[in-house]
Design a protein that fits this description.
The complex is a heterodimer of chains A (66) and B (256). Chain A is mainly beta. Chain A is built from one helix and five strands; from the N terminus they run ββαβββ. The termini of chain A are far apart. In chain B, helix 5 links the parallel strand 7 and strand 8. In chain B, helix 1 runs parallel beside helix 9.
């Protein structure tokens, strides 16, 4: 199925959960936050939150800023 | 010295908060933070850039174990965007002390006070401790304090302008009425601007560009540390009165 990560299309297996996506994206998930269809998915729910075709995700982290 | 800055029940020894933007590198940023003696740094929240996985990460240089991260809402132009950003920041870092700024337009980055007040109320209702970037309008400053903001942060002049404190009278009015810390945020260009903010009775100064865009940022960070200390001490010491004419410092009696 296809989801959208930070606006870009991303292919992931059917039945995937948020954790699968995080693992596919990075080896070092410290300090990131995830929003699924504009709702925050807390880290404690990454393993149980299923993804569906067409879902829109935002994956953000801290960067330098004033 | 027991002259601590207390924000939302948290104690800080340093009254200088620095940004983490515009530096040549995060390594230089870390050096500057150290030289400034800062304990709190502002950080922004942005989409992860997957195209360059080896890109330096802020937290590997300016560690959240060593510095309090103060997530900001830079780039937000509505209350909704700001609230959304800070909820994500809380999820990313676990901190509820935040810097709220809601801007009005790209040219001035002047704070939109109506949206700022709306966002502040929503965030406070959601359990955040809100340090708020605002105009130097004492009326709005009061409203933000009454809404429950834990620090009022009026601009000295426009963000990144380096024009110093353009309206010291208003800053003074805000300081006099506030029961929470007042921190000048934005506009500081050089050390004397920071000292002036402190001499006006502000509790601290937040700056980014003045350090990051100095020819020698680490040295300027050190200068700012001294300026904040000097200004604070001068404020606490209480300056002499202004006189129109000379008043000799040596005794008039006993002249030959």
């Amino acid at each position: 199925m296809q989801v959208f990560v930070n606006g870009d299309p991303f292919e992931i297996k059917d039945g995937a959960v948020v954790n699968d996506l995080v693992r596919a994206l990075t080896d070092d998930p410290r300090g990131i936050a995830i929003e699924l269809n504009r709702e925050i998915v807390p880290k404690s729910k990454h393993a149980e939150t299923s993804l569906n075709d067409g879902d829109r995700l935002e994956v953000v982290q801290f960067v330098g800023g004033g | 010295m027991t002259d601590k800055l207390i924000i939302a029940g948290r104690e800080f020894t340093s009254r200088l908060i620095i940004g983490t933007g515009k530096y040549a590198s995060y390594a230089q940023n870390a050096e500057a933070a150290k030289a400034a003696g800062a304990e709190m740094v502002t950080v922004a929240l942005r989409r992860v850039n997957w195209s360059d996985p080896d890109q330096d990460r802020l937290q590997d240089h300016v560690s959240p174990d060593k510095y309090s991260y103060l997530p900001n809402t830079a780039g937000c132009f509505t209350a909704d965007e700001a609230v959304r950003t800070l909820r994500l920041a809380r999820e990313a870092g676990g901190w509820d002390l935040v810097k709220l700024e809601v801007l009005s337009d790209q040219k001035t980055l002047y704070p939109d006070m109506e949206e700022t007040l709306t966002a502040a109320k929503a965030l406070i209702a959601d359990g955040f401790e809100v340090m708020v970037y605002c105009s130097d309008d004492p009326v709005y400053a009061k409203k933000l304090e009454e809404a429950g903001c834990c620090a009022i942060m009026p601009l000295g002049s426009l963000i990144g302008s380096g024009l110093g404190i353009q309206n010291p009278l208003n800053i003074r009015l805000i300081v006099e009425q506030a029961r929470v810390p007042v921190i000048v945020d934005a506009g500081v260009g050089t050390a004397s601007d920071a000292a002036m903010a402190m001499e006006l009775g502000c509790d601290g100064v937040l700056m980014n560009t003045a350090i990051a865009e100095a020819k020698d940022p680490v040295r300027m960070a050190r200068a700012m540390k001294h300026a904040i200390l000097a200004g604070r001490e001068a404020y606490l010491a209480g300056r002499m009165g202004r006189k129109r004419y000379a008043d000799p410092s040596s005794p008039l009696g006993g002249l030959i």
